[in-house]
Design goal:
Elements: E1 15-17, H1 23-40, H2 46-60, H3 62-70, E2 87-89
Parallel strand pairs: 1-2
Organism: Mesorhizobium montanum
Protein name: DUF2274 domain-containing protein
Pfam families: DUF2274
């Protein structure tokens, strides 16, 4: 088998996750979407924003990044970290 410079691409199949949130969190997410629309002039649904919000949160959590890097049991040790996950959440 050839030794290619580019390794095998990670699984990019999106995962759909359905969650239930409190009324207060739902309102906060809707307010965020409204502020996003006001700031950037583009309307995005809460369901479209949430995967990026979660990604930013996880990328900014230093303890989580350290645990994944060290390969601690139960923290992604069985699979390589992906560059970007595409999780979709229902807008409930």
């Amino acid at each position: 088998m050839p030794n290619l410079k580019l390794g095998k691409l990670p699984d990019r199949t999106p995962s759909k996750i359905t969650i239930t949130v409190s009324a207060g969190l739902s309102q906060a997410l809707n307010d965020y979407a409204a502020l996003y629309r006001q700031t950037y002039g583009e309307s995005e649904t809460v369901a479209e924003l949430i995967p990026f919000m979660l990604s930013e949160f996880l990328e900014s959590d230093r303890a989580f990044a350290k645990a994944r890097k060290e390969g601690l049991p139960g923290v992604g040790a069985s699979e390589k970290p992906r560059r970007q996950s595409a999780a979709r959440l229902d807008d409930t």
